[in-house]
Design a protein that fits this description.
Largest sheet: 6 strands, mixed
Structural class: alpha/beta
Number of helices: 17
Shape: globular
Helix content: 40-55%
Distance between the termini: 84 Å
Number of strands: 9
Radius of gyration: 24 Å
Order of helices and strands: HEHEHEHHEHHHEHHEHEHEEHHHHH
CATH class of the largest domain: Alpha Beta
C-alpha cells in the first residue's frame, strides 16, 4: 500500500474536519441575534419575548445603571452591542459628534412615522435632522420621598423643593432614615446648578465651586451612592430620600404598594425645576447585526408595544398612538405624563467642553470621597 504524502494527509484531515463542522458553522451563521445594552428596569420582559417569537431574532440583553458606565463600555471599542439607549444630552450628542453611532435607515423603520414631531424637534440639538436616534422613553430627575418617615424626623420638611436634599439643615435632620444619591455627575451637577439659580450648562469655575460647596455640605448625611438600586431601596424602606429618575421613583412606589408593608413613596420634581431628558434608541457604528437592530427599533416603536413598555416602566413615551393604550392610572399620573404647566418648569441640558467635563469629574470624585 503506497504511503500517503504528509501534505495530502493534512488536506484530507482538514477537509474532513470542515465537513464535520459544516452543520455547526451553518447553524451559527444562520442564527439571528440582536445585542441590546439598556438601562436597568427599563423594558417589559414580555416585550423582549414577544419580539423573539414574532421575528425569530434572539435578544441578548445587558444592562447598565449610569451614563458613565455606558460611555466607558463604548469607548473601549468593539462592544458587540447593536442597540444602546443613551440620554440625548450630553451623552448621545457626544456620540453623534464622535461618530460612535450610525445613521438610522428610516426605510427599515416604518414605525418612525409615529413619533411625536414636537418631541423629536426637542432632541435635534443633540442630533441635527434626527438622523441617528429615536426617542425611546423620557422623564425628569427629582426626589423620591417616603414622607411618613421623613416627617417623623422633620415635621416641617419641605414637600415641594429640592432643598429637602440640597439644604444641609434639612438633609441633616432626615439622615437617620437613609439618603441615597444618584451616582452620576452628568445628571446631578446640572440640577444643583439650577437649584442654586445658575445656568445648568454653566462652564464657569465659580459656579462649579458653588456646586461643590453645596454637595460637600450634604456629604456627611448621604448613606449610599447608587443609580440602579434606587428602586429597591425606596420600595423596601431602606431609604426615605433619594435623588433619582422619575420613573424609577414611581416604580418604587408601585412596588411598595404591591408589597403591602405600609411604605409609600412619592416623586417630587421640585419647584425649582426638574431636568428633562430623553433616552434615545441608537445603533453603534461597529454594531455586528445592523439589520436586526433596525428590526428591534421598529418593533419597539409600535404603539401597542410602547404602551406595554410605559405600563411596565412607569415612564412616558414619544408615540402618541400608544397613549390611549396606556393604563389610565399611568396615563393620568401627572408625574408620569406631566401637564403643560409642569413642563414649563423643566429644563434641558447641553454638552460642556472637555475641560469642564474633566473638572466636573474630578469634583464628583472629591464629593464622593468627602473631601
Amino acid at each position: 500500500m503506497p504511503r500517503t504524502r504528509p501534505g495530502a494527509l493534512c488536506a484530507f484531515l482538514a477537509a474532513l474536519t470542515l465537513a464535520l463542522l459544516a452543520p455547526v458553522l451553518s447553524a451559527s451563521a444562520q442564527e439571528r441575534v440582536v445585542n441590546v445594552y439598556n438601562w436597568t428596569d427599563y423594558i417589559d420582559p414580555y416585550v423582549v419575548d414577544r419580539f423573539q417569537r414574532e421575528t425569530g431574532i434572539r435578544v441578548r440583553y445587558d444592562v447598565y445603571d449610569s451614563l458613565e458606565v455606558l460611555e466607558a463600555k463604548l469607548a473601549a471599542g468593539r462592544s458587540g452591542y447593536d442597540i444602546i439607549v443613551p440620554t440625548d444630552q450630553p451623552t448621545f450628542a457626544r456620540m453623534v459628534r464622535n461618530g460612535a453611532v450610525r445613521p438610522i435607515d428610516r426605510a427599515l423603520v416604518p414605525n418612525w412615522a409615529g413619533l411625536d414631531a414636537g418631541m423629536m424637534r426637542q432632541v435635534e440639538a443633540a442630533d441635527a435632522g434626527n438622523r441617528h436616534g429615536a426617542i425611546y422613553l423620557w422623564g425628569t430627575i427629582g426626589l423620591g420621598v417616603n414622607f411618613a418617615r421623613v416627617n417623623a424626623l422633620h415635621a416641617d420638611a419641605p414637600r415641594d423643593s429640592l432643598a429637602l436634599l440640597f439644604d444641609p439643615e434639612h438633609a441633616r435632620r432626615v439622615r437617620g432614615c437613609g439618603i441615597v444619591m444618584m451616582d452620576s455627575a452628568t445628571d446631578v451637577i446640572p440640577t444643583v446648578l439650577r437649584y442654586l439659580g445658575r445656568d445648568p450648562n454653566s462652564t464657569a469655575a465659580d459656579d462649579l465651586r458653588a456646586v461643590e460647596r453645596t454637595l460637600l455640605s450634604i456629604r456627611p448625611f448621604i448613606r449610599q451612592f447608587a443609580s440602579g438600586g434606587v428602586i429597591e431601596r425606596l420600595a423596601s424602606g431602606q431609604a426615605c430620600l433619594a435623588f433619582g429618575y422619575s420613573g424609577d421613583v414611581i416604580q418604587a412606589g408601585a412596588r411598595a404598594e404591591e408589597a403591602g408593608r405600609g411604605v409609600k413613596v412619592d416623586y417630587v420634581a421640585g419647584k425649582e425645576g426638574a431636568q428633562l431628558w430623553h433616552d434615545m434608541l441608537a445603533i453603534p457604528t461597529d454594531a455586528p447585526n445592523v439589520a436586526n437592530a433596525h428590526a428591534f427599533i421598529n418593533f419597539l416603536l409600535r404603539p401597542d408595544v410602547m404602551a406595554e413598555i410605559s405600563n411596565k416602566t412607569q415612564y412616558p413615551n414619544a408615540v402618541p398612538a400608544s397613549w390611549p393604550l396606556v393604563r389610565p392610572e399611568v396615563r393620568n399620573n401627572p408625574n408620569i405624563f406631566p401637564d403643560e404647566a409642569a413642563r414649563a418648569r423643566f429644563f434641558t441640558v447641553g454638552s460642556v467642553d472637555a475641560a469642564t467635563d474633566r473638572a466636573r469629574t474630578r469634583m464628583w470624585a472629591r464629593f464622593k470621597a468627602g473631601r
